[in-house]
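ESCALATION

Customer reports they have been waiting on this structure for their group meeting. Please prioritize. Original submission:
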Amino acid sequence: MTQFKIATPAGASFTVAGGGYGYEMEPLAGLDAEIAEGPADEDGFIAFAQDADAVYAKGMRFTKKVVDGLPGRCRAIVLGSVGVDSVDIAAATARGMPVTNCPDTFIEEVADHAMMLLLSAHRRTIEQDRMVRENRWREGRPALLGIPRLMGLTLGLIAFGHVARAVAKRAKPFGLRVIAYDPFIEELVMVEHGVLPVTLEDVLSQSDFVSMHAPATPEAESMLTEKHFRQMKKTAIFINTGRGPTVRESGLIQALSEGWIAHAGLDVLEIEPPGNNNPLLGMPNVTLSAHTASASSRFDPARKRHVGRELGLILSGKWPMSCVNPSVLAKSDLRRWQPVSMERGPNS
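Update from on-call: job pushed to the front of the queue and completed.
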């Protein structure tokens, strides 16, 4: 019998099932630990995890019921994703249980995807492709004659976390003026990235492109509604590579169908996957991808090794690197090991 049991629901998250836990186990090689699969339903998993030393959260929602049902010996809940909306963080915090994520594993990919959606929407790539395939060659050029050149236009960022900063870095060489709104970030941080800090109203009214990067927190749910889309330019393009629930989709659909804005490039939707009755699927002024912005050849190896590193630290009695509820760490029996000065980690 191994010393440490890491309980995880059977199945996979984000990717196809199978392949085992080789990447996660690499950083755990020096520990007597195993990752054991259990049922992916609430009651079944709670019963299965009663002797677990940690939980690898995937494949199901970790509600308050599940979190409260975990044993006292369980040291942490570890996620292999950036988003933490599948776990009741408040319940974990109330129990003094750290929750970790992968905050900096997919930044470059998501920023690339955001720029791809911006550029393809601006130059109407999907429509242009369709015209060529439908033998409407001569319609291509006239369709773009009303589109301004990219240089000199304004990109507005809602939230200014890691991905938004990477998008700003990519946008600058295209000649875009970049502005941003984030009430949780010091304005000087934006200035250091060559980005002008403004209000949300300024982002909406001034931007030719509005890129949404707010995380899926209770405060950000339905952050953008009908009234916000009414404030945008009729020529504006809305980009979302963050989280679907941060936008009230009915307002976005109305904005697109009634011409309040020109186009949308969406990697995320309010409900995923969307039902066949979602109007966005039939709109010619919408470019869609299937929540794939973070996907690349390094996606699984990088995130799974990150999970293994966090589990290794926690089972060794140390603070994790990417704790989303760091207030619990000082009261836990885990010990701080990082240098005082660090670019990331539980105090960043």
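Sent to customer with the following note: The mean pLDDT is 93.
Escalation resolved.
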